Amino acid sequence: MTIKVGVIGAGRIGKVHAETVIYRIPEAEVVAIADVAEDAARHVAETLRIPHVTRDYREIMADPGVDAVLVCSSTDTHTPVCIEAAQAGKHIFTEKPIDHDLKRIDNVLAAVKAAGVKFQVGFNRRFDPTFARVHQAIQSGEIGDLHLLHIISRDPAPPPVEYVKVSGGLFLDMMIHDFDMARFLVGAEVEEVYTRAAVRVDPAIGAAGDVDTAVVVLTFANGVIATIDNSRRAVYGYDQRVEALGSGGGISTANVYPNEVTVSTGEHVRRDLPLNFFMDRYTASYEREVRAFFDAIVHDTPVPVGGPDGRVPVVMGLAARKSLQEHRPVRLSEVE
Amino acid sequence: MTIKVGVIGAGRIGKVHAETVIYRIPEAEVVAIADVAEDAARHVAETLRIPHVTRDYREIMADPGVDAVLVCSSTDTHTPVCIEAAQAGKHIFTEKPIDHDLKRIDNVLAAVKAAGVKFQVGFNRRFDPTFARVHQAIQSGEIGDLHLLHIISRDPAPPPVEYVKVSGGLFLDMMIHDFDMARFLVGAEVEEVYTRAAVRVDPAIGAAGDVDTAVVVLTFANGVIATIDNSRRAVYGYDQRVEALGSGGGISTANVYPNEVTVSTGEHVRRDLPLNFFMDRYTASYEREVRAFFDAIVHDTPVPVGGPDGRVPVVMGLAARKSLQEHRPVRLSEVE
Amino acid sequence: MTIKVGVIGAGRIGKVHAETVIYRIPEAEVVAIADVAEDAARHVAETLRIPHVTRDYREIMADPGVDAVLVCSSTDTHTPVCIEAAQAGKHIFTEKPIDHDLKRIDNVLAAVKAAGVKFQVGFNRRFDPTFARVHQAIQSGEIGDLHLLHIISRDPAPPPVEYVKVSGGLFLDMMIHDFDMARFLVGAEVEEVYTRAAVRVDPAIGAAGDVDTAVVVLTFANGVIATIDNSRRAVYGYDQRVEALGSGGGISTANVYPNEVTVSTGEHVRRDLPLNFFMDRYTASYEREVRAFFDAIVHDTPVPVGGPDGRVPVVMGLAARKSLQEHRPVRLSEVE
Amino acid sequence: MTIKVGVIGAGRIGKVHAETVIYRIPEAEVVAIADVAEDAARHVAETLRIPHVTRDYREIMADPGVDAVLVCSSTDTHTPVCIEAAQAGKHIFTEKPIDHDLKRIDNVLAAVKAAGVKFQVGFNRRFDPTFARVHQAIQSGEIGDLHLLHIISRDPAPPPVEYVKVSGGLFLDMMIHDFDMARFLVGAEVEEVYTRAAVRVDPAIGAAGDVDTAVVVLTFANGVIATIDNSRRAVYGYDQRVEALGSGGGISTANVYPNEVTVSTGEHVRRDLPLNFFMDRYTASYEREVRAFFDAIVHDTPVPVGGPDGRVPVVMGLAARKSLQEHRPVRLSEVE
Questions:
Q1: Considering the entire predicted model, what is its pTM?
Q2: Residue of chain B minimizing CA distance to D212
Q3: Fold assignment, D3-117
Q4: Most CB atoms closer than 10 Å: which of A100, A283, C152, D61?
């Protein structure tokens, strides 16, 4: 039996996930793709030989032959699409964040629970070989009990200011990944958040009400203290690293480079810049997260990144923003 | 117009190349696959939805709808298959080595020339991002005029002795890749070879008439001196590196690792071992070489690794073997 | 003319500084050494051929032939010794911290100012070649305007609890170095401090009223946000690194190792542990700071680490402690 | 009892060794220094407070109070000075090479043997922490049985051509260090040498009858095959590394840098160049070799680098030169 899949959203990430299903998941098949930009959907469908194309994702919901959907449409549509998919009894893989509003997220989670379908959130970085190896080291006790964690997460360049205005800002569109990473690596829940942030990269970001440079301190229930360091612009490329200290040792990670070449000249010993584009840096993770989603369906096991994993980082983002506004540490319970 | 492709040989590399054509080369389509082990061919065909399967590659040769063939069968079949393919007017991508016998190679090259078809030899390492970057640095003058080159090439474990007996031995089945790499990076022809070698890894390899540990010094027409260091067994994994010194600088490369994690314990600061399997290490290169072959067909441009590139490393391997036997430097002209 | 030097304190650091003067500073000469443990002083004097030994540092103060003193006695004696030395008109190099009490520090600085003598505080890490290079990069604009700084500073093992009880605790005996480093690298003053800390390494440290694991966020007047990560125990060795992000690039530093060897076995690719002992790690810095002190005397130029540089880190330590106690960000002006 | 030491030669290395004895070897004392350039000797003596200065080293030989001599004069004087020192019953530490002429070396070794004095040759690189660690790894079996060794040894810039004319050329003035390193690391004797070399750096070196770029293959009695890669000019600095492969693992070493800083800009991820000057690169080794010499005297134990260790590399250099001239592998027994 092959799992029949509908893809909602034919943008960059929708296309990547569709390719993964088609080329890498023998147990699944993409039977339809929907996008309000029908031309985009049609183009992807032709390239990937997807039989059905539509402007209206509701056609996919209405098709009883579709077993699962990949929700890759814009963030503001995630809630209604996921609720409809749950009500239609389809397993759901949705891009993150589920939503910026906790009440709407709760509605999604309630619908998913009522329907008894699988629901996975696309925090792909957990599936990156490097971060997965850090997770393994921490969980296996390779460095003893974890004491400190430091996450560096910097984009090569800021997004358009128009995006910043609707994205929920740095804490919800960018640091949300690091909130997830922190929870994933520490294996416990955060109790309190403290934020220092500034506008250093682009005044237009400040004018739009956001920050572009931020440090957040997280205090976990198990005593771990973590820091997250975000910048909208690292001129040398996409900078994605973590460091951990435990009672039995430490871990650090390096960035990923396009090659393993070092050139020594009369001036420097140098490497080419690290990978610049997140889809190059995290290529393997996209395939692995989709693979894990279908494994959970095939074997009827829990998904690795479920509803609460999609909800908590939004709570953390709201708390981080509140901490910045009120200039004090904020407990997560305050924003619930 | 889509290029119709037949794949000869349904083993490991045949499957990889077929996947590349199917998933990554929109301009081409795999229409048939042949293998004397018909079950293997059938299995690959089913997985990849290749319409035609056969025991007999001649069916592919006889099909006027086939434009190009990928020759992935055992080495001893390359010569007849390539000659037949050329005579049938099909473009040819063949795995290396073309053959162990220079006269047979010459027959292939003559048939290809007479037919006017594209003929590319599968020296995939040229397409590895790291070695391609070294090539670029040398050719662009980034390190000035090249003086010295050192190639380290070590397998994680020796092949079965049965393989060694028919493979042509270390110089023709293993170092041949390094001979190609040396020519590729230096951009000139070798004039003389000197070999020192030993049996250090497994006496059974010696009993089979081969060596498992070897150093070869190459002298190039442009004055570059290169050394190649081969071992059948590096217990820490697949060790594939080069170093170059030029008048304006130096280059060195590192191995490829499964992750970018460093763990520090009370005993060591350590990394996991480098990739162990050549198909993992060189994944990108297989796709890129096939991409280049079809680019040459589509744009009717020269292939990047042509007939002479397939022939000269065999000459070098024969000269290296002769140098070992006669315990003296041997000029390539002596084995022509 | 040779500068005549008296050394107060014949412990580990007193001996190191005496050796530096004797072997590396041709313009100076150690004429006397004092220690309440007279045997220790006598032993050092014999080894280094220092002509005069005394239990009572006041003998050195009273000697009009002494031009400069190196204050290497226990922290609680720094204030009276420095004040007496200033009143005796001697140039002063004192180990850090000057004192734990701001009023006493102010008395020292007043005495020094009144006497017009040179007064340098022993924040040696500024003279470490690696951190000096980071400073140069930041000050020269090599990475543009500084946005973020992260300091990792971890000891290989905690000090005796008895020491913790009198040292002023982690913020005054350990992080004080990092406060100095932060000011040195950022080149601006700190306005606010926020602390999260815990007892993770040894409950006895907690019982003594201190913490052993701490993260501090510093906000600078020029907008830079810095974090300091301290632990009393990194089992892999002395971990001393910084990272900086600026508008034009980033900087990171590595630890110092006893050799440059990497061993690859069937299990790991590994290095020996980094240097474990602070006097090995910072060897070069001790010599360079003393060299700088005598340069300032010889050329009558300002010392590189003066009175305010000795005072401000104590203010920061007090603010960090207050932030921990009151669980809120604290401005430095609150503890003045 | 203090060992009384005379230093012959007040050049760069003579001064370094004198400083080591004075500052680092409490059991020894420099009582005299000799140099035909008496002003140089006088200058060093004043700086280091050496009581006796002379133009004529024979004064030192004649002084019965001198127990040991450090022979740091020009290479052509080593033989007569060492023979006279042996005849005067003084322990001898001599810079390498002992001589370029095997018969003269044999005369030195005979004189030393007859006198029963300690005789150590200054192959300092054995005492470098990095190469000593490689030696330890190989000798302790950390990488199993050694199969292959590769030595990279490149100077930052060629010496003056006048020096090349009298130095014995690249094989005797530069590669001699690498011959010693190969013997030291492999722990066996070389049987055969094969050389490829060229003039690539400076035609004037060729005009003087020497080469500036060379690769030598060494075959050891225990089956190890080693290669040495020499260049008179690596524009990025002093390049001194080794690589080894054994049955149980591999070793590689990195160069030594002035700091541990990596800077990432919009163009590169880069480090400053490695140390450029051999006396900076090998600082620790000079002190350690002299320390070892005096330990051998104090404890009456064998010196770590004795007469045969001084002689064999000269044999290897002569064989390497003969191999280049005759374009064939040469056994060491041919040049004895």
A1: 0.96
A2: B147
A3: Rossmann fold (3.40.50)
A4: C152
